Amino acid sequence: MPDSAAPVASSQPSLTELFTGFAKVAVSGFGGALPWARRMIVEQRHWMTADEFNETFSLSQFLPGPNIVNFCVVFGSRFGGAAGAAVALAGLLGPPVVIVTILAGFYAHFGDLAALTRILGGIASAAAGLIIANVIKMAEPMFRRRRDFAPVVAIVGFVAVALVRWPLPLVFAVLAPVSVALAFVWLRR
Amino acid sequence: MNGNPLLSLFGYFAVLSLFAVGGANAAIPEMHRIAVDVMHWMTDRQFADNFAMAQVAPGPNVIVVTLIGYHVAGITGAAVATVGMCGPTCAMAFVVARFWDRFKDAPWRIAIQAGLVPVSLGLIAASAFVLARAADHSVYAWLMTAATAAVTYFTRINPLWVFLIAGLLGLSGWL
């Protein structure tokens, strides 16, 4: 996706900027940190073009683990080596970890309060709905293609993990190679 | 891994992070299986509560592991769980980033990514199912889940507003 606002990445972050930049992304990142990271890196600070951002993000999606955490490591190491990766990571995870640890302390003391349980219960119901909406958005293009292997893989994975409750490593070890092999054949047609 | 809880926390999260294709939400069913069914660290309800707190707190969704770690072993547990979940994959990201340019256009690389997308879709769908089952204990709670899904799908409203309404409805005793 070309971005007319920033055709050329014009500046490079220092280590301090890597820390503060990702800390800011972390604390504004309600409902996913990715849009905030894109806004800061591409639109506000011009550290990357939109294409470079997409490229780097596709690497973080390729790897296992939380995408935004992978992204911040790849981004940090690109501009500041191991130190850059470490400060970017500290910025992204430090403030949220402190905040949720305080929340966890409250929960440990007041978790038995009926009022708190009721509030969190309501939010948990809504949070499940939020994920359902994301699933539908992801599934739409996949299920629209005809005679594709992908929907079958997704449904088998869902049944194995959600209904049968098999361990994830086991399901992954069987399903992922099959799916990748099918994708390989599919893409060569 | 039944002895030291810190060792179990680290071990389970380190292993599970390596299979979390599609991000933290894809790993929710496995976290639930371990924390509730296998290790009995918490009840279904407490798992849902912790997930709710991680959702309303700022930051990446992965910090739900910090909350689970705290529940099991206090501040040390929180730190150990977070490092277990993020450490191995961060190290991998750091190493792979150096070679990315060399294989980013390779057919096998594209096939791996294309093959993993449906796997992660299945896992994230399983997350929604596991969470809804842990959180929804009444018809109204299921309706709340369905309404949130519809609102998020059809509008671009900030989910925090939905969480606020859901929290208030929960407090009032409707859900």
Could you describe the 3D structure shown?
The complex is a heterodimer of chains A (189) and B (175). With 189 residues, chain A is mostly helical. Chain A has 2 domains: 15-110, no CATH class; 130-188, no CATH class. Chain A contains 7 helices and no strands. The longest helix of chain A has 44 residues, at 67-110. Chain A starts with 14 loop residues before the first helix and ends with a helix. Chain B has 2 domains: 5-135, no CATH class; 138-175. The mean pLDDT of chain B is 92. In chain B, 55% of the residues are buried. Helix content of chain B is 78%, strand content 0%. In chain B, helix 1 packs parallel to helix 4. Chain B is mainly α and 175 residues long. Chains A and B meet through helix 1, helix 3, helix 4, helix 5 and helix 6 of A and helix 1, helix 2, helix 3, helix 4 and helix 5 of B.
List the helices and strands and how they pair.
The complex is a heterodimer of chains A (189) and B (175).
Chain A: H1 15-28, H2 34-44, H3 50-62, H4 67-110, H5 114-144, H6 150-163, H7 168-188
Helix pairs in contact in A: 1-2, 1-4, 3-4, 6-7
Chain B: H1 5-18, H2 28-38, H3 44-56, H4 64-103, H5 107-135, H6 139-154, H7 159-172
What's this model, at a glance?
The complex is a heterodimer of chains A (189) and B (175). By secondary structure, chain A is an all-alpha fold.
Uncertain stretches of 5 or more adjacent residues of chain B:
none
How is the biggest beta sheet of chain A arranged?
Answer: none
Query: How many beta strands in the DSSP annotation of chain A?
Result: 0
Helix tally of chain B?
7
How much helicity do the residues of chain B have? over 70%
- Helicity level of chain A, as a percent range? over 70%
Distance between the termini of chain B: 38 Å
SSE-based structural type of chain A: mainly alpha
Shape of chain B: globular
Count of structural domains of chain A: 2
Uncertain residue ranges of chain A: 1-6
Number of strands of chain B: 0
How large is the count of helical segments of chain A? 7
Question: Which class best fits the helix and strand makeup of chain B?
Answer: mainly alpha
Written as H for each helix and E for each strand, in order along the chain, the element string of chain A is HHHHHHH
Q: Find the biggest chain interface.
A: A-B, 98 and 108 residues
Oligomer: heterodimer
